[in-house]
Design brief:
heterotetramer; A: alpha+beta; four-stranded antiparallel sheet; three-stranded mixed sheet; 7 strands; B: alpha+beta; four-stranded mixed sheet; three-stranded antiparallel sheet; globular
Chain lengths: 377, 327, 377, 327
């Protein structure tokens, strides 16, 4: 048992740190959830790709570095420490790509992954529908079998940055007789196809970061199916697993935000309860880092990530709220001013909601980790 | 001993609510985001009802009310998220301007012509643009000149810094200024109670209807218990606000004024903030969009929780005020 | 609207304060949950009765003072402020008596209430059974109709101070065909009747404060029925309402315990979070006082106490836990020593459990106060 | 980088658990309430396994293990609520006695003849009666003489004050004493993790079976979420405890020793206390009697949460240790 990086891992970290120090923009980019800011972020994504830092854990032939999970964690830690821009490609790279790696045909992988790595194709997710939020099984968008492919109809909503993306992935009901989570198929849909309409709308933190996507009898070929007809539910579950799990929320993000919180507290000479809450947030970030290192040690040794990833999701999302609430309490009357901490607070409130609300995660923990009976609600 | 609101208090609150249900809908609050400081029509209605000059003696054209008479109506202005300085004008400024002998300005308030905003010295000043006068409370009190605007979390409650010069000192005692600051905290606490009640009601309505996993979201025990907790905070803050109003009016049974106001503002800030976060969580993604009205009230809540002393500030005041734990 | 006591109320308070100052024992009595301590507490109860302070709100003919709700609140505040002994008669006076006043016949009232006020009859409650805790409707103790009365059989448990009491009140299933909360009857049972066995056992805080009561074909006359055969459920609900409501937990208790907490904090010169929590507990005690004054104002004006009393119960029980947890945190390593604060902490943990767990209370608040749908759990 | 416990560590823990499942049942802990300090048979078994002298070099008859080798076994001694000074002897005393050249006492520990208890100066000393030696850690370290007993919340872990005289100073550096205090906090944190796991498992078993309102109590969402929260605290404290053990052993990747130990003790104290309160709440009245075993583990939890620095104390240490928020 140890917590010490190998010389090779330290070398990898140093290379990442060096490149980031030389390339991260001096000033924060405008928000990636506005049209103008999204363009600036795309430039950054392409610089990352050119230097082979956009998808470090992917195979070299797709633009990656074949980096191990350990190296990926190190890269993420350096990325946040450097204050580098938000990854506007994250829905593709962190949510869709793991599913393509697991369920895609070799042809799909070769066609889709390099363009995703290079930020040529920009993917948004189509999980939610007006009648179905966390309850994916309540979807009503349909896919009708036609010659050589499928015709898709329905409405997707809450697709993050959907107005700026080129492609959508999501579930459609391909068996009209089916109910709940049976008879769903996972589709990959270009947003420039005939019959697609995208309408952007605003978020709590004021950016136009969401979109509704209307599909009116949109034709897609058979190659748009990921993982097999009627298999959509189990394919999607794999993706939401990775959204909840380690891959999206690396500890580096919270080590950095709590470090900035300590900086803020020191600048304001905070005493009393606030100081205690600053320490509490920092300790929880440390614990998240150690929990993750323990999990990754198991994964590297061949274990499977299971329902325990719900523990990660509850912990980091509530830590993020605590961190930002504490920052606002420190800022006192200035908390009413619209600036990074107050925006970050509003953004943090989405954490306990998306990718399965924390209520759902707690039920998963109780039933699948602790083994409590499933009867009742 | 009778802690029930009087008939006069209940009627003023009911009249305010009726007016605001009609004239200060969510659409009106939303419109104030685009054009802050344009609530003139709404203000005229409030002036007609007498709210801005409620504490002005009847002889000077006001309603001649006490602080505790006015506070239930201020809860209603919070429930509606009135986008104008009603607490600042009616509760903070009026008694101070009377003490300073500024009868001209008091008359303008009664007539509905003056909108006086106010803030503790050093804090961003709300309701600029919109207000006609800016009152700043430090050791003393000054009428100040607003400077540059700063972006606000709550776009319907715009913020500005002060210009460096042009301020005009008011002739008032230090005690008058301290009392005015306490009234600022009290009025804000009253509005937070109304905001909390509004968001809780919206969330009960939403979760009772919204179906998920084959049942209304509001039938799940976790949601029920979150909302029961939210109600608990608001229900226990509300009497503390009325008691602080009585303390402002000098009711001997209401105890120490600073302790009473600190309790009211700390409990109301924490309770309303808890309601906002619970409401967003229970709305799911719906709570997280600026097209749904909930965010209007959540953002006002966060702005007011930060104004006139945070909950932590007021806990420190309480610790001071309660003094040694003598029997 | 005002918060000022009338001269008559202040006069009543002064008389109570004066008598308590002259009569409260200098040293705390031994715990009333031990046999020896219970005897000492009985002496105290009889002194209270002799001076007409044992049941101030009752009619004079039963030993009370016809005190108003306001005067009762004032008496309670003075009682706790004076550090007067725990009321070992509380199950009778605060739980059973309101039910007798509401449902008892004139004969029952005249026979039972004066003896209760004088601590001649000592009542314990028989709500819980081995198979039924908060779920009163799951009771299985039986009452069989016989000539001139009833035969009771079954087992009651968790009866507080049952080993030292003379009588028990509780529900029995009088209709053998019935299920859930139908067919129950409320009985008053002398513990010296043939067929009754009482076995004391210990509590978390170490006292022998609980008992199991076994009933083996115990005969009671018809006059042992309170409120009518088969009406037990609605009669009992009235009692649990008063247990949860204001009558048992007067604000004076929490004003006094938080005052002692501030005293402790000052003696230890506590800083930081602990100081904040001391203030938080004090503010919550203030808020409980004001909430109660508001409720009593409504009651005095003729309103009915309803499901809102669940709000009282959640608030005071969790305030009591907060107060004691904060005290233990202030005491640091000394918290491991068995003394009043650490015993009080363990005792406080029962608050959120008994008289309907706080989970049940929150569900009541959500359904009956907020009006959320009852489907589901 | 491999944060998994080694095979040796897992085996020592498994062997300890097997021993304690057989020899330290709830009945044994309960018996220690009536006759504190009579765990002699149990101690002999632990000594046979090598735990008391685990950190003693093999040349001196010990197991020659590191702190991180021993810590998983200490988690097991917490799970079983071992009524004897195993953390104090094995983890606190041994390295300090080695540094002080007290080979006689070390040999007695290895032989299972010496039970050394320990406490920070000024705190009540646990395991008296029972311990053969009392180590008190202030600026320096002394072997002290116990005085009067004081009543303990956890009757199976008796407490005493110190006699005024008769203490014998050990010749050790201040750094050795500071390190010993940190090991006391670490070992206690390890036991708290085991105690938390035990109470959580008992509560899962109970609520899965206990019926109320026609369904298992553990099928209600509120109970599920309480228990999920309890698990969350324990699962995130556990790696922090292992990391602190590595920091004691000087692993450069484990970061600052004081920060690591403070994190471990604060998180483990809060998590185990939360489990205890949740467990009692979920057991209903059953959790509230001394006939049911749960209380044995809850009371040990509260005693250990208060020992070697409370969570609040360790948050203060963390604030000190983490220093300026340098990048």
């Amino acid at each position: 048992m140890d917590l010490t990086w190998t010389p090779e891992q330290e070398e990898f970290r140093a290379r990442a740190r060096e490149w980031l120090a030389a390339n991260v923009p001096d000033r924060p980019l405008p928000s990636g959830d506005t049209r103008e800011g999204f363009a600036a972020h795309l430039d950054w994504e392409r610089r990352l790709f050119d230097a082979r830092w956009s998808v470090v854990s992917w195979p070299e032939r797709y633009g990656g570095r074949d980096a191990s999970l350990w190296e990926w964690l190190l890269f993420e830690e350096e990325y946040y420490r450097a204050g580098a821009p938000q990854r506007v490609t994250q829905n593709g790279i962190f949510l869709l790509a793991p599913t393509i790696f697991e369920f895609g045909t070799p042809e799909q992988q070769d066609a889709l992954l390099p363009r995703m790595a290079a930020a040529q194709d920009l993917w948004c997710q189509g999980w939610s529908e007006p009648g179905a939020g966390s309850d994916l099984a309540g979807l009503s968008s349909r896919a009708n079998r036609v010659d050589g492919g499928w015709r898709l109809s329905g409405q997707k909503t809450w697709t993050t940055r959907g107005a700026f993306c080129t492609h959508l992935f999501g579930l459609f009901r391909s068996d009209p007789e089916s109910v709940r989570h049976k008879g769903l198929t996972y589709f990959l849909v270009p947003l420039d196809a005939d019959g697609v309409t995208v309408r952007g709308f605003g978020r709590l933190d004021g950016d136009e970061g969401f979109a509704e996507v209307f599909l009116d009898d949109v034709f897609v070929p058979d190659s748009a199916v990921l993982g097999g007809v009627g298999k959509g539910w189990s394919v999607a579950m794999a993706t939401t697993g990775s959204e909840r799990g380690l891959t999206l929320r690396s500890p580096g993000r919270f080590l950095e935000s709590t470090r900035r919180l300590r900086e803020l507290a020191e600048a304001q000479g905070a005493g009393g309860r606030l100081r205690e809450e600053v320490v509490e947030a920092s300790m929880r970030a440390d614990a998240y880092q150690l929990f993750t290192l323990s999990q990754v040690s198991d994964l590297v040794a061949g274990a499977k990530a299971g329902a325990e990833s719900s523990l990660n999701k509850i912990w980091w999302s509530e830590l993020d709220v605590l961190t930002h609430r504490t920052a606002l309490a420190l800022r006192g009357a200035e908390a009413a001013v619209d600036e990074p901490w107050s925006r970050g607070f509003q953004f943090s409130l989405a954490g306990p909601i998306y990718a399965g609300t924390n209520e759902i995660q707690r039920t998963i923990v109780a039933e699948r980790v602790l083994g409590l009976p499933r009867v009742g609600r | 001993m009778d802690f029930r609101p009087t008939e006069l208090q209940r009627e003023l609150a009911a009249g305010t609510r009726e007016l605001l249900d009609a004239r200060c809908t969510a659409d009106v609050v939303r419109a104030a985001w685009d054009k802050p400081g344009t609530a003139a029509g709404l203000w005229a209605s409030l002036a007609e009802l007498g709210l801005p000059g409620a504490l002005v003696p009847e002889a000077a054209g006001g309603l001649g009310l006490s602080v505790s008479d006015l506070v239930p109506a201020l809860v209603e202005t919070g429930r509606a998220a009135v986008p104008a300085p009603i607490v600042e004008t009616a509760l903070v400024a009026v008694p101070l301007l009377l003490a300073a002998g500024r009868d001209d300005l008091v008359a303008a308030i009664v007539a509905g012509d003056a909108l006086v905003t106010a803030a503790p010295a050093g804090e961003p000043v709300p309701w600029v643009p919109g207000a006609t006068h800016v009152l700043v409370l430090g050791e003393g009190a000054v009428l100040a000149v607003p400077g540059i605007r700063v972006p606000a979390v709550d776009g319907s409650r715009p913020l500005a810094r002060l210009a460096d010069d042009g301020a005009e000192e008011l002739t008032v005692a230090a005690g008058d200024v301290a009392a005015a600051r306490l009234r600022g905290a009290l009025g804000t606490a009253a509005q937070l109670v109304g905001l909390g009640e509004r968001q809780l009601a919206m969330t009960v309505d939403y979760t009772a209807q919204r179906q998920q996993f084959g049942a209304p979201v509001g039938s799940f025990q976790a949601v029920k218990h979150h909302l029961a907790d939210a109600l608990l905070g608001i229900r226990f803050a509300e009497p503390a606000v009325r008691a602080a109003a009585l303390a402002c009016d000098g009711d001997p049974g209401a105890g120490d004024l600073r302790r009473a106001v600190a309790t009211a503002k700390a409990l109301a800030s924490d309770a309303a903030d808890q309601v906002s976060r619970t409401a967003i969580q229970c709305h799911g993604a719906m709570g997280y969009t600026d097209e749904y009205d909930l965010q209007l009230y959540a953002k006002r809540t966060w702005a007011l929780a930060a104004a006139w002393g945070t909950a932590a500030d007021h806990r420190a005041v309480y610790a001071d005020a309660v003094g040694p734990a003598a029997r």
